[in-house]
Structures are given as C-alpha cells and as structure tokens.
Amino acid sequence: MKKTLVAVILACAAATAGAQVQTAGQAAGPSRVIDNVMVAMYDAPGTGEMIVQYVRDNGVSVAFDARVPGRSGHATDAKTGKSMIGINPSYQQEPVSYRRIAARIAKEAAELMLADFPESAEKRYIAASRMAETYFELGGTRIDMQNVDGVVDPEAEKLVFLWVENAPDEGVRVLKGQGAQTLDERIAWVTKERQEMINYSMTDWEEIYTRELEQLHSAKAQFQQFKKYETDWLMSHSSQLQ
Prior knowledge:
The protein is mainly alpha-helical. It has two domains: 30-181; 182-222. The chain is 64% helix and 6% strand. It is built from ten helices and three strands, in the order H-H-H-H-E-E-E-H-H-H-H-H-H. Strands 1-3-2 form a three-stranded mixed beta sheet, with helices on one face. A hairpin with a 6-residue loop joins strand 2 (72-76) and strand 3. The radius of gyration is 20 Å and the shape is globular. The two termini are 21 Å apart.
C-alpha cells in the first residue's frame, strides 16, 4: 500500500515557502550559508530540527569541503571521535538552495546517527526518510525532486521517492528486492551460526553471535519506534504541506 496521504499532500507543497528559503540563501555570503541552512532546519519543527540538535549535541562540524567525493560525505576521526559532514562547494554557488543543502546535511547526519544500527534494508529506509522529510520541511515538492532549484540529483531523487512511494515495511521489502538484507534475515542467519558454535562448544564465537543477536533485536525495536515517528510526522505535517 502506497503512502496515499503523502502522495496527495506533497504534490501540493507550498511553493511560497520554498521561494522564501531560496531567496534567503542568495542574500548570505558563502561562509554563512551552512549556518543559515541549519537555522532554517531547526526552525522547521520535525526531522530537520532533530538532525540539527544531534549535530550540535555531538559537536559534528558541517562545512563546504572540496575533498568530498561526489555531492556530500561524512567521516569520524578515530582518535578524537569527532565527526564531520562535508558538502561539495558547488552547493554554495548562486543561486543558493537551502533545501538542497539541508537534504545533503540530513543524509550524512543520518548515517552518523545510525552508525551503531546494523546494516540492513531497515537502516537504508530510515536514512532515506531523514533526507526526504528534511527536504519537504523546507518547502520541497515531489515534482521539484527531478530538478531541485536547477540541479539534477539522481541519488537524492531516488531516496526521496523511495520514501514517498513506500511506507516503512513496504520500503524494506523494496530494498530487499534490490539486494539489501533485512534484520529478520540477519537474525535467522546469526541464530543458526550461534547454534553451530554451541554444538561445537566454541564459547568465544557463541558469545560474539549472542552479542550480535542482542544488537539486531535492539535494532528491530528501534525500527518499531521509527515507524511510530513516521506516523506522527505525517499527521503533524499534513496541514503544512497542503
């Protein structure tokens, strides 16, 4: 079942809000663009606000960085534990688009926030949702995703439409069909391996698999909490997006 509510309301997203966001960006110098984008994200209650709070609480630096391969990236210093998010400098060129930069910040921040979440279809869907919701909170529309303020971004378009067209469980099935492993599949495999270690009295490996199972079951519980967040997000943003 598709996200009927989202499919309807996102097509009618406020063009005026989007125009205001872009105009504000054009007035700022390059050194202030990131700060202004994050203020805009924080001032729009929802996912963008949550992401900015995470960035601030964890001392994550966000900056334009020419070393970034592609459009954006993230890294964590093994010695200090500090993380950074880099945005391709091309994003600071006029006309500056807050929604494009915000979506990229959200994408990379989501990866940092999910660092301890087992790699899985569920993780990929959550990450896509963070990017999509931030984009729409800043006035984006489904139609604009194919050409965001004059820039084509196939990766962002693919992630946003994954979220738009599929509720969480459906999105997981879509990603599974594309080759991603689900948490349930991972749990089944680890459970089997753990039992073999028990049979062969390989205590060290049994403990390793036991810890991994605990992590996987914890991730499943987190995904259930995420699904509730998704429902609440749609309810609280429906009037805003009409």
